[in-house]
Amino acid sequence: MLTTKSIYEQILLSIESGALQPGCRLLETDLANQFGVSRTPIREAIRTLESEGLVIHKPRVGAELRLLTQQEIVELYEMRTVLEATASEMAAKHASSSELRTLETLNIQMFEAATDPNEVAIYNRQFHICIINSARNRFLSHSYNSLSHSLILLGKTTLENEKRVQDVTDQHEKIIDALKSGSKYEASQAMREHMEASLDHRLKAVHINV
Amino acid sequence: MLTTKSIYEQILLSIESGALQPGCRLLETDLANQFGVSRTPIREAIRTLESEGLVIHKPRVGAELRLLTQQEIVELYEMRTVLEATASEMAAKHASSSELRTLETLNIQMFEAATDPNEVAIYNRQFHICIINSARNRFLSHSYNSLSHSLILLGKTTLENEKRVQDVTDQHEKIIDALKSGSKYEASQAMREHMEASLDHRLKAVHINV
DNA sequence: TTGCATCCAATTGTATACAATATTTCCATT
DNA sequence: AATGGAAATATTGTATACAATTGGATGCAA
After folding, report:
1. Looking at chain A, which residue has its C-alpha nearest residue B45?
2. Residue A1: per-residue pLDDT
3. How far apart are CA B209 and CA B94, in angstroms?
4. What is the DSSP letter of A135?
5. What separation in angstroms does the CA of A162 have from each of A122, A173, A190?
6. Does the beta-carbon distance from B142 to A53 stay under 8 Å?
7. pLDDT band at A207 (very low <50, low <70, confident <90, very high)
């Protein structure tokens, strides 16, 4: 059954898969036909996307998928760095041993899936979400969730080759070690470095696409 | 003319004024009658409130205004501290001289309005928003905006007497001084202290209300 | 009195119809 | 040929009607 919530998620997936490109218009009628529902649930899904910042909505004109400038991409990663570094700092205090084991497992699975970029991306996302949730702050989780939706506007992962996966899992391991030893400063610093490396790769990828 | 957006803002105002109490149900039909519109724009406004976390929405049951636990209030302020301290750090680098003058003016106006808590609250909000925007990060501004909406769930200001206003404007002045001298660390530290004092007062106020 | 099943009222979820507005097209005028 | 403007079209905004679901009320039986 297609409900408003599932349509919202479907649209997110469509953005992620590239079926909906940043900058393109979101026509209510088209989407309604596409999903086989009326315009009402589509409108509500679009409103949610709008309040998350994925969609620019001009009254009486319509919605279009936001297209991020290079400057905005930098700001997005700057904000992501703040949230993830903060989360790491808090997680160093609050993470349960079960969560620490989960992080280790995810990192190993990610390494072993190195040849499949899509699978790697999934494990990577779970890894970061696990850290965020280990911080034990609902508002932080909520903000991160919204921000991570904006991230999908950037398109496919930057985890495209095995060398890169190796680097990333190494950085993850540093973070895990810091979390295990409970050292706030090290954990947040390791995450900051991880994020900087991630932005570097992202900007290179953008450059290639342009 | 009452459009979806203005209805959304009206509901926020109703929460702020106390007309809508946390925990109460938001009945679409009632709100529609109250604003003299159909249910459609009401539903969309509620969807926006939901995605900002102000409203809990159970399918087929309806929406109710979120009621924050004491623990959640602490988490809210913890997150607010992160965002505002980060903003102060960035603003120490990016704030324009015009923005710095604006902050000084707002702080003076706030001090002079000390006998009118509502006016004080307005200047206070503008002060903090100005710092956030001085950070020059759209995603930070967006997150803070959403978070500040959750803050209104807590009800009226804690700026209820002149002694308290004096303390707050003093703290603001420290922040301004740090921003003017461009020292990241001092600015973020001054903001952290300001936020801690603010949480202390908030928790006392909650205690009294209970 | 309590437990349970059933029905009814209240309320949300969706579809559709209509109104208002923006955009485009095309023609007349310069 | 360029430009301005008016009509036509496309699209969103809102209202309303109907379907689906929930929560409670009612009544019956143990």
Report:
1. A47
2. 67
3. 40
4. T
5. 15, 16, 21
6. yes
7. low
B79 and A139 within 8 Å at the Cβ level: the answer is yes
CATH class of the structural domain B70-209: mainly alpha
Is B175 in contact with B198 (CB distance < 8 Å)?
A: no
CA distance, residue B192 to nearest chain A CA (Å) = 14
* B4-65 to CATH, choices 1.20.140.10, 3.10.20.30, 1.10.10.10, 3.40.630.30: 1.10.10.10
Centroid of chain to Cα B13: 12
In tens, the pLDDT along B49-63 reads 999 999 999 999 999
- For residue A42, what is the nearest residue in chain B, using CA coordinates? B44
Distance A55 CA to D7 C1' (A): 32
Contacts of A9 by beta carbon, 8 Å cutoff, 6+ apart: none
Instruction: Output DSSP code: residue A63.
Output: E
Q: Does B146 touch chain A (CB under 8 A)?
A: yes
Residues of A in contact with B84 (CB under 8 A): none
